[in-house]
Amino acid sequence: MTRAKALWVLAWAMGVVDVAIGLFHVLGGNTAIPGAADAGPTIDSMGRFFGAIFVGYGLAWIWAARQTPIPAAAVRMLTGVFLLGALGRVLSIAVEGWPHGFQVGLMVLELALSPLYFWLADADEKAARAEPGRA
After folding, report:
1. What pLDDT does 35 receive?
2. Are 32 and 25 a contacting pair, CB within 8 Å?
3. In contact, 120 and 7? CB cutoff 8 Å
4. What HEC string does the chain produce?
5. Tens digit of each residue's pLDDT (9 = 90 or more) over 70-111
6. What is the pLDDT of residues 27-72, one digit of tens each?
7. Under 8 Å CB-to-CB from 70, ≥6 apart: which residues?
8. Is the pTM of this model over 0.90?
9. In sequence order, which residues have a C-beta less than 8 Å from that of residue 42 and are 6 or more positions away?
10. Of 22, 57, 80, 127, which has fewest CB within 10 angstroms of its CB?
């Protein structure tokens, strides 16, 4: 698989998964957060709001994946947001301690995928320049 194809697949996957996760949080509220089912109305409200924001984030990935070529600047910006979220989780561990194991797994995934997305960010633009008439 070429780097450009890998970027396309991963950008689409990120978008679809993020939209699904976001909708799950909007609809599920506290029950969508492992270990937070009884967190109360304030956390429920915040979780549903952030779920809607996550839907928008996923739609931004889908938008990027639908461009020809996929814009490197958009991939880098979206990946930066993704990495910032992972670093927020690291900060939370430093300040508050270890969260539910599912959240730790997500953090590991976020920290592992961010460098891959940064590495692939310009793959489609480079492929388009190398193939006249593609873009």
Report:
1. 84
2. yes
3. yes
4. CCHHHHHHHHHHHHHHHHHHHHHHHHHHHHHHCCCCCCCCHHHHHHHHHHHHHHHHHHHHHHHHHCCCCCCHHHHHHHHHHHHHHHHHHHHHHHHHCCCCHHHHHHHHHHHHHHHHHHHHCCHHHHHHHHCCCCC
5. 999 999 999 999 999 999 999 999 999 999 999 999 999 999
6. 999 999 988 878 899 999 999 999 999 999 999 999 999 999 999 9
7. 4, 7, 8, 11, 64, 123, 124, 125
8. yes
9. none
10. 80
**Would you place residue 134 in the very low, low, confident or very high pLDDT band (cuts 50, 70, 90)?**
low
Name which of 84, 76, 61 is nearest 118 in CA terms.
76
Tokens representing 74 are 């958009």
**CB-based contact 74:60 (threshold 8 Å):** yes
Q: Which two tokens stand for residue 19?
A: 């939209």
